[in-house]
Every structure is written in C-alpha cells, then in structure tokens.
Amino acid sequence: MLQLFVYGPGLGLPSLDPSCLAAILYCSLAVPKDEFAIYQTANASMSPTQKLPALWDGRAWVGSLKNVLFYLKQKGYNLDNQLDKDALSKINAFSCLLERNAYDLWLFKAYVCEDNYVRVMRPEWSKVLGFPFNYMTPNAFQKHAKERLNLTLGINEDKLSYEASKMPISHRWTNASRQKQALLQAQAFRIRISSLARHLYGSLELLVGDSEFLFGEHPTSLDCLLYAFLSFHTLTENFDQLTLRSTMQSSAPKLFHLLESLKTKWFPSNEQDGLLSSVSIEKQPQNLLAVARVAWNNVSKKIHETKNSFQNVSISSEKQLSLARNGFFILASTFGFVWFVLANGIVVIESEEDVDLDTSRDESSSALDTDVRSREVEQRLDDNTRDEAPPEAEEINASSMSAEDLLFGFEGENEDDDGDWEEEEMDDEEEEDFDEADADIA
C-alpha cells in the first residue's frame, strides 16, 4: 500500500503547500482509493530530498513532486497514457512553466511580502504544524523563497525593505530619500510581478477550451498542477498585498472560470461528494525521536554551512603570520599569569592526601581545645559551688568541751584547702588572760 506524506490543510485547501496539493490530486485521480493513504505530517526528514511530498511504497522512499509523479507513472498509475505526443509535449512544457513561474508568484505573494507572511502565513503554519516545526518550517520557506527569487527574478530583500538610519537630525533628509527609494523599488517589483502574472495566465488560457478539462473529458497531470499552483493565486482571499485574483479575472477570465469549476467538482461544499471523501487521511503523530532527528539535522546543517564559509575565505600569508603572532602572545600571557598566581600563593593547588591530613589535624586540635575548655568550665563551676555552699552546723557537746574550747572556740576553726588544722599562736597578754580565766574556773 502506498503512503503519501504531505503537509496539513490550510487557507481552505487540502494542503498548505502547492506541491503537496498536486500530489494529493494526482494520487486521488490515478491510484485506486484502497491502494494508498494520505498522512499529514510536519516532518520532512523521511524524504530523501528533505522536501514534501514524500511517497513510501513499503520498500523505498521517493521525495519531491517531480519524482513522485514519475514513480507513479512508472508503476502504471498514469493519467497521461491516452494522450498523443503533441499533448504530452504541451504537458511537459506547461508543467515546467507552472512549477517555475506560478510557484515564484506564490512565493513572492506569501513569503516575500512581509505583511502577508506575518499576518497570514505564519498563523496558518502554526495551525498546521506542531512544536518545534511551527518555528522552523515557516522561516525555512521564507528563506528559500528569498534565495530562489533572488536567482530567478533578481528580487533583493534589501531593495524591498527600508530601515531608518540612526543618524543625527541634520541627516534626516537622507532617511527620507532612502525611504522614497525603497518604496519606488518595491512598487517597481510589484509591477514586474503583475506583468509576469498576466503573461503566465494568458499563456495558460490558450489551453482552455470548451471541454471539462484541458485535454478532453478526462483529467491529466497538467490539470492537477494547474489547480494546485493557481488555486493559491486566486482561491485564497486572505491576502491584502498583491491580489492576483483580480489580475486573473481581468487578463484570463476563461482560466479563472476553469479553476472555479474544478473546485466545485473536486471540493464541493458537501465533503461527502468530494474527491477525498473515500480516501484514508490520517495525521502522523510526532514523537521525541523525530524532534531530536530534526534538531540534529538543523545543527549539522549549520555546522556544514559554517565550515564551508570558512573554507571559502582566503587568508593571505601576512594575515596568517599576524594570527600566529597574536596566538603566541595570548598563549605566553596566559602562561605568565598562571605562573604569577601560583608563585605568589594566590591560588594553592593541594593533593587529596594533603587535604585529608590538614583536615585530620584541624579536627584533632579542635577536639583538644574543646576538652580543655570543658575542664576549665567544670573547675569554675566547682569553685562557685564551694563558695556559695553554707557551712554545716555541728552539734556541740558541752560536757566534753574544755574551757579553752568554750572561750576561744575550736582550735581547728581555720582550715586550709588541704584539710589540716593549724593552731594560732598567742602573745603574752593572751596567755595571762587565759591563765586567770582557768584559775577562776577551777
């Protein structure tokens, strides 16, 4: 079973990209409904060309519109097999015209016109794509559009945009002239785009006849391409700048009527009667692996572009010598600074053993200081306790006391710290008084 991977719907069309819409139309008309399925995705990394549409047949991938159509025709799904050589040559010629000029007009209208891009295209892509593709895919399309139109039509972004110069007031006239020149350049490019559109529409109108399709009563690959590319010109009315709808109505009315009839036939108001009513359409979920793959592809692409830009830059021998000298001086200065810091002890480099030894020493010294301080505190508490404690009263036995004890107290009243009793010495007068008192008692 064939699997077709395309971008999701937008702007009222089955896909927001013209190439994807052309592949959807061709598969719906050429391939039986039960032999293919449509998957709406935001990741184009599975495509060999990194572009959608992409086709998977169960064994290999086919990327980009031209390759997908060629592969389907080789497999027998060919809408042009009943045409003669003259019709086939016209299909090849006008297909190239649509893929180049019609696609250029769409890129200019949708991505180069900044107002259309900011106001219409970015919100539409945000609805179709999920994170992080809603930030990367629109910018990638805009970058591709500017690069392509610069090559094909010579449209330069710098000539279309104007940015006021940050200059003094005396040079304000310079900004006014630059703004006027930018507006004139933009108007000239729009006139050129309108002329290109009229030429394209006039050439395609020559193919339009009275039949239902371009080459008779059966659709061809050119009908698919015609509707896919020109429907974005005329059937999308959300754009203010560069309205190609009025240009086609005035320059190619028959072509405009053909597009309206194809829209009514393939995508009527009742979706059950439309071309995609019985086609299997699913939305491919995004997993973390796909997001990581896209992120890696973007990073590797940026690295490759940067590498190529450096390789393309030619450096003279004098410049190389100057860079070598600057590198030598930077290296020598760095080495001298590191030596100065280490020699003066501003930064000390220690091994793990030295750090462990210093830590053990600090811990032992702190433990010793703590022990000494605890002992001093205990000693102070004991001294304070002894000073504040009241003397214990002793029972006095008068019958066993002598006269000397009653008059002068105990001989050991004054007790020193060692617990020894000391007898106080008496002078001569005290001895005489003591003898008299003893004699009276006797």
From TrEMBL:
Residues 354-442 are annotated as: Disordered. It is found in: Mitochondrion outer membrane. The keyword Ion transport does not apply. One of its GO terms (cellular component) is SAM complex. Keywords: Membrane, Mitochondrion, Mitochondrion outer membrane, Protein transport, Transmembrane, Transmembrane helix, Transport. One of its GO terms (biological process) is protein transport. It comes from the Eukaryota. Residues 358-389 have a biased composition (Basic and acidic residues). Residues 412-442 have a biased composition (Acidic residues). This is Metaxin 1 (Sam37).
